[in-house]
Amino acid sequence: MNLQQRDEACIWHPYTAQKNNAPIIPIVKGKGTLLYTENNTTYIDAISSWWVTIHGHAHPEIAKRIFEQAQILEQVIFAGFTHKPAIELAERLVKMLPGQMAKIFYSDNGSTATEVAIKMSIQYWWNQGQVQRNKILAFKNGYHGDTFGAMSISDRSVFTIAYRDKLFEVIFIDTPTPANLNELTNFLQNEGEDIAAFIYEPLLQGAGGMKMYETYLLNELLNVAKHQSIVCIADEVLTGFGRTGKFFASDHVYTKPDIMCLSKGLTGGTMALGVTACTKNIHDAFVSDDKMKTFFHGHSFTANPLACTAALASLDLLETVECIQKIGWLAKMNKAFSYDLERLNGIKNVRVLGTILAFEIDTGSDEYLNNISREITAFCLQQGVYLRPLGNTVYIMPPYCITETEYGQVQQTILNWIALNNQ
Ligand code: PMP
Question: What is the pTM of this model?
């Protein structure tokens, strides 16, 4: 049996229909932006393998550091013990994160990072005797992960419909526009006292279709939320580590969050790690002689030393002048490409945020289950490019190491598909 057949015999893949699905492709090697198959076919990973691979695949420096750490300390229980990679990483994050982040709580993926944030903010009020202050506010069309808490705070969608009765209640509001801003701020002013926390994907709703919204509008909203003492949680699982042009999306926004969620690019996309960072004020509510005020949460692999080491190596790369310039260059390439796309028929809503470019194919129905996604993926693979549209929303989000030639190939592939379908 070849790899594909062996896979099919025993593996169930994520977000993959179990009948009539596209063939699963075995990948035997990765280097830079490229993924290699068994027969040496290459694909440019134009979506950074679900938005995680910021410095390219199998980066030698990150690989070396993980290898070295694996021979020193691979894992240790993180209650009662600590280790250097976790300490160094926390020290660096506290310094580089926007706002006044003071404490780093580790977990192991994006969903756990948001679950932790929600639990932390609810218990923040509970520990202060304000048990009734427990409502959660989130954006319509938002996405924060696939575990039950993370699903609950995500907008109801095809992803969650089967479990809708089991999800806890959340107040969903529209993302801000000039037209609805007053209504939203009025709502916060009137209802804010009962709201424990507000979770938002700053500037970009990723899985909800790469929808972008204005910085100043978010700022206004956060301002009012802060006045009402609502705990503001920035879910930067996707937008962190350079994606939006700055290190964090919250760096664009004047009003800073109280809690931040990080994962994906945190380790350069090499290992699973989640971070929930919080301010001193949040943490203070847990400092007590009363044991009931402990935050009873943890995972076996909390702060795994290998993952923390990978994150330190990734930060070293991210902070180089070369990488920062590359992020700026990619943002410019995206802008230039967006002007070309805007002139074409059959597509709409071309938009760019830093290293991310997105647009919709005008199919008449904007929905995630649109078959066009699969058609585009198949077409692009034939041209050596991997794209995975969200329904009819096509986006690119390449590793920062993408070369000019590779970017050109991604561009041309997209243009070829549009040309073919506009005939
Ligand atoms: N929050 C956001 C904004 C995300 O984009 C994602 C993943 N797409 C998550 C949370 C969940 O992360 P994970 O897949 O690592 O659980």
Answer: 0.98
